[in-house]
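Page 37, continued from 36.
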């Protein structure tokens, strides 16, 4: 019997995958299922599973950040995601296992067979960790910012923060220039927060690049100082995720 941990922030996804595993891959015993990424890290280190089903896009920590934080690393990874996204393309390219939601029985069985075959092979986890390193190093990309004379392609690393104002967004760059665009923060959240762990939507009105955070102020719920000039409020439900991204652990 192989032991598995499931980590997915959506309870429906957890329950659905658990039922499918019990029905189609009875060789797997689920020892923990977590809808919180930090709990997932603890579960992996405590249970030392053979297989981990790991969602890519989660609040607080994404799937790649979970891999970075665990101490126990001798398990097979099967990524799960609901989106044909930027990260998934990289996973495919590196021949790592994944399941695209809604998960089919055939895909689950085939992923299990591959994971079972690779159990005990150190190069499997090494490949995953090397992929993680390469993915982070290739994390630079450009964002289209509409201007007066067309669309400027701005390196994501140059963006300090984006602030919502009325029906517009103001993109603030590291050179302190500001670009007003007729796009919502939701659009930029999909472009930035889902593609790289450097960005976080700290508040309904702000997306922040944590590389430019110079100070954290805990009073009144918490504020992030951007380059010691801009004070950005932190929503209560984003505090733990933010502190994790700046490598500060509340626990």
């Amino acid at each position: 019997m192989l032991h598995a941990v499931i980590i997915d922030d959506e309870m429906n996804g957890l329950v659905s995958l658990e039922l499918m595993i019990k029905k189609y891959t009875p060789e797997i015993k689920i020892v923990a299922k977590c809808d919180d990424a930090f709990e997932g890290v603890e579960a992996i280190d405590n249970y030392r599973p053979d297989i981990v089903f790991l969602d890519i896009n989660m609040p607080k920590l994404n799937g790649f950040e979970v891999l970075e934080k665990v101490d126990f690393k001798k398990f097979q990874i099967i990524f799960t995601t609901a989106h044909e996204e930027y990260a998934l393309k990289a996973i495919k390219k590196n021949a790592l296992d994944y399941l695209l939601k809604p998960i089919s029985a055939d895909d689950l069985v085939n992923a299990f067979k591959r994971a079972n075959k690779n159990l005990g092979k150190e190069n499997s986890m090494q490949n995953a960790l090397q992929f993680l390193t390469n993915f982070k190093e290739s994390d630079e990309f450009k964002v289209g910012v509409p201007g007066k004379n067309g669309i400027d392609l701005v390196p994501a690393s140059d963006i300090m923060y984006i602030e919502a104002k009325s029906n517009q967004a103001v993109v603030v760059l590291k050179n302190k220039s500001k670009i007003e665009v007729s796009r919502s923060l939701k659009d930029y959240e999909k472009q930035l927060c889902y593609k790289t762990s450097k960005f976080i939507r700290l508040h309904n009105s702000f997306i922040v690049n944590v590389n430019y955070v110079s100070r954290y102020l805990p009073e009144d719920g918490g504020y992030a100082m951007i380059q010691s000039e801009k004070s950005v409020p932190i929503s209560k439900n984003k505090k733990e995720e933010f502190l994790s991204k700046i490598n500060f652990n509340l626990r």
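The helical segments are 11-24, 37-47, 63-69, 86-93, 105-118, 122-137, 185-193, 239-245. Flag for discussion at group meeting. The mean pLDDT is 85.
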